[in-house]
Amino acid sequence: MVARIDTFSFERDLAKQGFNLVAGVDEAGRGPLAGPVIAASVILPFDCDYGRFKDSKKLTPKARERLYGELQNMDAMIGVGIVSPAKIDEINILQASLLAMQRATNLLTLRPDYLLVDGKFPVPITIPQKPLVKGETKSASIAAASIIAKVTRDELMQKLHLKFPEYNFSKHKGYPTAAHRRAIQEHGPCEIHRKTFKGVREYISRQP
Questions:
Q1: Predicted structure pTM score
Q2: Residue of 23, 26, 41, 31 whose CA lies nearest to 80
Q3: Mean pLDDT lowest for which of 109-113, 175-179, 199-203, 204-208?
């Protein structure tokens, strides 16, 4: 029998050290060929049922949306940061992801005492923090942030589908599926494609 991981142990240990406002930070949208990268910063209340919050990639869309609604309606503090495709092209996707995390954290109603950050790199902000590889599986706060970021980005890509229906963003959300690659080859990139990404830059001359 596999032992269940306590996904609130980091938050609990940090509280014992005096860090009472611990935010989990994660992003969605590093891999797509189109659309922004979106990050969320979430401070969960200590009395919440934290075990429900899991890595957004391991949840069905319906489960993500349900948990998104629960997070919005509970006492969680939530900040969302967005970085545009143009900015991604300007500073690269890693720096854009960290910038989105910084923006999300700055939009929290209270400044966190500590950050738990998904990945290997710290957020460029003067707050004590700990990067955690595969953090969504280790921290409920990071998992909650992954849910907020993913649902927010998916909803935005649904709206962008209405503006650019020929790419079918509602289906693949900008990720490099075979159908998306064919659409880029056929129509050329649109204004929300990431022009420096392989699979897009080869077709810049055909931009509508």
A1: 0.95
A2: 41
A3: 204-208
> What distance in Å separates the CA atoms of residue 137 and residue 131, rounded to the nearest whole number?
13
Fold adopted by 9-164: Nucleotidyltransferase; domain 5 (3.30.420)
Q: Is the pLDDT of residue 201 over 80?
A: yes
User: What is the 8-class DSSP label of residue 203?
Assistant: G
Q: Is-contact 85 43, C-beta < 8 A?
A: no
| Dihedral angle sign, alpha carbons of residues 177, 149, 68, 143 | positive
What is the 8-class DSSP label of residue 33? S
CB 153 within 8 A of CB 173: yes
Instruction: Read off the pLDDT of residues 50-75 as tens digits, 9 standing for 90 and up.
Output: 999 998 989 999 999 999 999 999 98
- Beta carbons of 93 and 101 less than 8 angstroms apart: no
pLDDT in tens, 78-137: 999 999 999 999 999 999 999 999 999 999 999 999 999 999 999 999 999 999 999 999
Contacts 24+ apart (CB under 8 A), 12-19: 14/113, 14/114, 15/46, 18/113, 19/113, 19/114, 19/128
Alpha-helix residue ranges (DSSP H) falling in 107-200: 140-163, 169-172, 178-187
In sequence order, the β-bridge partners of residue 34 are 193
